Amino acid sequence: MKSVAxxxxxxxxxxxxxxxxxxxxxxxxxxxxxxxxxxxVAKQETPYGVVPVENSLEGSVNQNYDLFLEYDLKVCGxxxxxxxxxxxxxxxxxxxxxxxxxxxxxxLAQCRSFLERLGREMIPAYDTAGSVKMLKESGLKDAxxxxxxxxxxxxxxxxxxxxxxxxxxxxxxxxVLSKKDxxxxxxxxTSIIFAAVHEPGSLYHALGEFAKRxxxxxxxxSRPTKQTPWEYNFYLDFEGHxxxxxxxxxxxxxxxxxAFIKILGSYPKAV
Length: 271
What we know:
By secondary structure, the protein is an alpha/beta fold.
């Protein structure tokens, strides 16, 4: 039985990503933070970890992209989960009794219009499902949490209102972490990090190596290096497996324009 680490409490969206990718009988290891997930895989406490890297509304999860620079781990898969927020409370709580709403800051932001109309205090917490667990354990009757339907089921709580997000097209993309690369599937993507050398046109020429080989880029984003002010690393996703001839050629040609390159991994595209 596979053991997979994820950040948060049971019922978190990251746990849903684990089950969607590996199956419902997977053994899971909840972790207090993202670094603990990376640590779990790096120390081989678990063979896999799952972390969110991008939300369709809020953008990238920058902390996890930064952690890839610290750990020698591979991305061996990706999975996309639809986020459907519910307002959850203790079984005896009525909607009109709620004075405060707890959840992860991103979840609160995604439900801001609903919560502002409700007129209740919004209190940030470290995790969506963790907020539900806290309400259960504390017995708070005048508070609610924003989390998944599954979190309500796990902790025996009541859903006051379903589907409360401002935008219903809310999806989160997760990476599957491992110590090993994924084999070619025929429908692959590759993720890399690189820094362009400080020469005119270096980024232009770097990206041109992919264009001239007809390789489709699916994402490019810059992040501060955190070493020198106003210097940036580029996070790039492209279609194809790193072992394919044209992709290998592009990565080799990229070396001429890059100060460094880190290949995070090639993996089957999420469906």
